[in-house]
Design goal:
It contains 9 helices and 12 strands. By secondary structure, the protein is of the alpha+beta class. The protein folds into 2 domains: 121 residues, 2-Layer Sandwich (60s Ribosomal Protein L30, Chain: A), CATH 3.30.1330.10; 163 residues, Alpha-Beta Complex (Phosphoribosyl-aminoimidazole Synthetase, Chain A, domain 2), CATH 3.90.650. The strands form 2 sheets. Strands 1, 2, 3, 4, 5 and 6 form a 6-stranded mixed sheet that branches. A 6-stranded mixed sheet has the order 8-10-7-11-9-12, sandwiched between helices. It is an enzyme of class 2 (transferase). It catalyses: thiamine phosphate + ATP = thiamine diphosphate + ADP.
Length: 340
């Protein structure tokens, strides 16, 4: 056996950094890959660029039969990929391919329902199922490659490393509701919740929606005198992780305002509310760093959007700190790990 650290010891971030050594410099730096070459669109109106993303959803890692049915699995698998396209600046999806791995005793009904959920979400955003592959294996997984496009004249790319000191940090919606939904489905100890609250939380967990609408609003709200420069990513790994990611990629520190956290109102009575808002994950909102005038215009135009902090030059406390002098923002000890 080769010596060296295991994947569990490395963690996802360090693993991706090391894998990036096999690709062109900077290729692994964003939510998806932006192809370098320009292509002509079918009408010959000018250039466009393709955006390509791959994501894998694995049984007993990303989903469980105890918390969602096959239709939800397909929907979430598509949503995770389309969210990354939106995080790169795409306004819709071209399509996707699916690699299916499943044990031989998997019922056809499970596969049929998973693809139905996947194509239901995909069709709502202009895309089609392009093909894929299938294989037997010990556990079910869907490996999806999604394709989007950036058309000239409709904004530009959103890159993680494009933030600058002075930018406002903006998020497009509330956070923590998906984590509450997971807690309800797992029957975790919770205060009594109204049935409507439980239903909203479960829906947020099982049926997230990619924020292509936020990309539309981003373009529509840009003041004419401000050039296109947007840093951003999605918050699938958590709000705090997204803000930290932008700060690290841009050589900045993100200062978060505690009283501006986009806490889902359903969480307000919970002791874990702040942790779930910051680190719960799977909310699939966009976290953006923008010039302040543009940020204010976006907040005014897109309901649910708010400024949660700003970017500054690197600070000794690290990439993510409280703006009130409260020090570094660090994750709770027990968080999701891909290779645990």
């Amino acid at each position: 056996m080769p010596e060296g650290p295991t994947l569990a010891e490395l963690g996802e971030t360090e693993l991706i950094r090391r894998l990036g050594a096999f690709a062109p410099r900077g290729q692994f730096g964003d939510d998806a890959a932006l192809l370098a070459q320009d292509l002509l669109d079918p009408a010959g109106r000018g250039g466009l660029q393709l955006v390509v993303n791959t994501d894998v959803i694995v049984e007993d890692v990303h989903f469980s039969a105890a918390t969602m049915g096959a239709t939800d699995v397909g929907w979430r698998a598509a949503a995770a990929n389309l969210s990354d396209l939106a995080a790169m600046g795409c306004r819709d999806a071209v399509g996707l391919t699916v690699g299916l791995v499943a044990p031989g005793d998997t019922p056809w009904a499970w596969v049929e329902e998973a693809y139905a959920g996947l194509t239901q979400l995909l069709a709502a955003h202009g895309g089609v199922l392009l093909g894929g592959d299938c294989s037997g294996g010990r556990q079910r997984l869907l490996a999806i490659t999604a394709i989007g496009r950036l058309e000239r004249g409709h904004g530009g790319p959103i890159r993680r490393g494009d933030a600058q000191p002075g930018d406002q940090l903006v998020c497009t919606g509330a956070h923590g509701l998906s984590r509450l939904g997971l807690a309800v489905l797992r029957d975790e100890a919770l205060p009594a919740l109204a049935p409507a609250v439980q239903a909203r939380a479960i829906g947020a967990h099982r049926r997230p929606v990619p924020r292509f609408d936020a990309v539309e609003a981003l373009g529509a709200s840009r003041p004419e005198e401000i050039p296109w420069r947007v840093a951003g990513c999605d918050s699938s790994d958590g709000l705090a992780a997204a803000a930290s990611c932008l700060a690290l990629a841009s050589g900045c520190t993100a200062l978060i305002e505690r009283n501006a956290l986009p806490l889902a109102p359903e969480l307000e009575a919970l002791a874990a509310a702040e942790d779930w808002c910051l680190w719960g994950g799977e909310d699939f909102e966009l976290v953006l760093a923008l010039e302040p005038t543009w940020a204010a215009a976006l907040v005014e135009q897109l309901p649910g959007t708010r400024c949660i902090g700003h970017m500054e030059s690197p600070q000794p406390e690290g990439p993510l700190i409280w703006s009130d002098g409260g020090g570094a923002i660090t994750p709770p000890s027990a968080g999701f790990q891909h290779f645990s």
